[in-house]
Amino acid sequence: MSSARNKRINEEVKKIVSKIILFEIKDPRVSKLASVTHVDVTNDLRYVTIYISVFDPNHNTQQTIDGLNSAKGFIRKEIGKVLKLRYTPEPIFKQDNSIEHGMHINDIIGTLNIKHDEESQTEESDVEDLEDDEE
């Protein structure tokens, strides 16, 4: 199986599922701010793992995953309509925490930068005090 072919199938599935989440699923558990972040199809094209991230802080990501799992048959049928493959892959939905993890790392870097700035300001004021004493 060609990896280029798998990449193309991954991108197509990502587009299809994103459109379905946004326009076609009416389940109130599925947030409209849910996003498909990454898709992995197996080499035999039997299963596709779809990673979901929800940007709504008031909405539980697990509820969105549960809503998508209940609509799994509909989503698989819609994927099969667009993709002309011998087997339509069975979707498996998983929560993607990479955005939250990235925000956490960004906060850590921000606090380190603040501490570094405070330390450098303290060192500068110490140097100025020494220069004043020498005069």
How would you describe what is shown here?
The chain has 135 residues and is of the alpha+beta class. The protein has two domains: 94 residues, 2-Layer Sandwich (GMP Synthetase, Chain A, domain 3); 38 residues. Helix content is 59%, strand content 16%. A three-stranded mixed β-sheet has the order 1-2-3, with helices on one face.
Overall 3D form = elongated
Helix content: 55-70%
State the CATH class of the largest domain: Alpha Beta
SSE arrangement, N to C: HEEHHEH
Tally the beta strands: 3
> Into how many domains do the coordinates divide?
2
Question: Which CATH-level-2 architecture of the largest domain?
Answer: 2-Layer Sandwich
Q: What ranges have pLDDT less than 50 throughout 5 or more consecutive residues?
A: none
- Annotated CATH topology of the largest domain: GMP Synthetase, Chain A, domain 3
Give the averaged pLDDT, no decimals.
87
Major beta sheet, strand line-up: 1-2-3
Task: Kindly report the name of the CATH homologous superfamily of the largest domain.
Answer: K homology (KH) domain
Gyration radius (Cα, Å) is: 24 Å
Our estimate of the beta-strand percent is 15-25%
